[in-house]
Amino acid sequence: MPDYREVVKGRIVSKDGSRPLSGAQVSVYDKDLLASDHLGTAVTDSSGKFEVEFRWSDFKDSPFEDRPDIFLEVKNPVTGETTKTGVWDELSGDLAEDDSVEVMDLGDVPVS
Ligand SMILES: [Ca+2]
Ligand SMILES: [Ca+2]
User: Fold this and answer.
1) Among the bound ligands, the one closest to the CA of 68
2) Chain segment 17-28, per-residue pLDDT in tens
3) Is 108 contained in some domain?
4) What is the number of domains present in the chain?
5) Fewer Cβ atoms within 10 A, N terminus or C terminus of the chain?
6) Is residue 109 domain-resident?
């Protein structure tokens, strides 16, 4: 099995969804029963967008773990507050035509 490249991306917005949050630190995790896997950290750009790349093997701890269960921890640069999002269970995304990379787009993610 090839060790696929995986990309999680999205846009961090204010709680009411009205404006993008730039400069926010976004940590991406795969939720597991005991210790969740930290998959990477990025900082949002001026339009609130972030992108984190990892490998299939980074979240896969056993043959039964086929898809990552993604959640984010987002640190708001203005308030200093950290928000833990809900979990996207067994997330899958769009696979490139040549199978080289899978992109999982979370869309707009509101944080306080
Ligand atoms: Ca998991
Ligand atoms: Ca895992």
Assistant:
1) 1
2) 999 999 999 999
3) no
4) 1
5) N
6) no
Is residue 105 in a domain? no
Look up the CATH number of the domain holding residue 69: 2.60.40
Helix (H, G, I), strand (E, B) or coil at 32: coil
Cβ atoms of 55 and 5 closer than 8 Å: yes
What is the bridge-based pairing of β-strands 37-43 and 25-30? antiparallel
* C-alpha 78 – ligand 1 centre gap (Å): 31
Handedness of CA 59, 54, 69, 15 (dihedral sign): positive
71 in any annotated domain: yes
Contact 85, 69 (CB under 8 A): no
| Closest to 19 measured CA to CA, from 56, 59, 46 | 46
- What is the number of H-type helices and E-type strands within the chain? 1, 8
Domain span including residue 33: 5-98
pTM over 0.85: yes
Residue in the block written with tokens 């961090």: 12
At 37-61, the pLDDT tens digits run 999 999 999 999 999 999 999 999 9
